[in-house]
Amino acid sequence: MNRNIAIDGPAGAGKSTIAKLVAKQEKLVYVDTGAMYRAMGIYFSRLGADPADEAAITAQVDGADITIKYENDAQQVYLNGENVTGLLRTEEAGNMASKVSKNGAVREKMVELQQKLAQTTAVVMDGRDIGTVVLPDALLKIYLTASVEVRAMRRYKELVEKGEQCDLKAIEADIAERDHQDMTREISPLKQADDAVLVDSSYMTIEEVVKAITDLYRERLA
């Protein structure tokens, strides 16, 4: 039985936080799609690839096999059989991932790998196009959002707690711009799937959001 959950939504809506908690509570595997893209960044960095050379990137992308496993309750990301989890947060991996993810062939390959994961185990997956492209047949689809103002304030508080100087209005403008880019991009734009349930977390606690989603999920399973 298909037991997958797809969570989409704009930047700063809390998708990853909620997805991890829902996965833990319902004993599902949380798939960090961002980590998978970073593993792809590592793959192309090691090849010495030029991200601007679309033909070369397209020709080489099928050489990457990326999967996620849970070992001792911790997510481990494997690239062609090698555990690269400790390399994912390097600046090099992030920069290359950002550049090659714009390539259509890379996105197609990532969708293929993500769908492969969801076929072998029950997952919670979050992103921008999970319910519309990656897992169109998911048992439950959630579109998790919050107002730009609320998302900006959340980000502002995170940065202040880290001791960073920041400007709330600038963060708001950045989030609004990112929303526009995500919703108008040519490949897999951010949008709510027709059969997704809208959850606006603007005035909800994390616990309330998790409960709302798990209640919906259990209804679907019944």
Q: Brief description of this entry?
A:
This protein has 222 residues and is an alpha/beta fold. The chain has helices at residues 15-26, 33-47, 54-60, 91-100, 104-120, 130-134, 148-161, 168-184, 206-221; strands at 5-8, 29-31, 66-71, 74-79, 82-83, 123-127, 140-145, 197-200. Strand 3 and strand 4 form a beta hairpin.
Task: Record the SSE blueprint.
Blueprint: E1 5-8, H1 15-26, E2 29-31, H2 33-47, H3 54-60, E3 66-71, E4 74-79, E5 82-83, H4 91-100, H5 104-120, E6 123-127, H6 130-134, E7 140-145, H7 148-161, H8 168-184, E8 197-200, H9 206-221
Parallel strand pairs: 1-6, 1-7, 2-6, 7-8
Antiparallel strand pairs: 3-4, 4-5
Helix pairs in contact: 1-9, 2-4, 7-8
Commentary on this structure:
With 222 residues, this protein is an alpha/beta fold. It has a single domain (5-221), classed as P-loop containing nucleotide triphosphate hydrolases (Rossmann fold, 3-Layer(aba) Sandwich). 51% of the residues lie in helices and 16% in strands. The chain contains nine helices and eight strands. It has helices at 15-26, 33-47, 54-60, 91-100, 104-120, 130-134, 148-161, 168-184, 206-221, and strands spanning 5-8, 29-31, 66-71, 74-79, 82-83, 123-127, 140-145, 197-200. The strands form two sheets. The protein has a five-stranded parallel β-sheet with strand order 2-6-1-7-8, sandwiched between helices. The protein has a three-stranded antiparallel β-sheet with strand order 3-4-5. α2 (33-47) crosses α4 (91-100) and α7 (148-161) crosses α8 (168-184). The longest helix is centred in the middle third of the chain and has 17 residues, at 104-120. The mean pLDDT is 93.
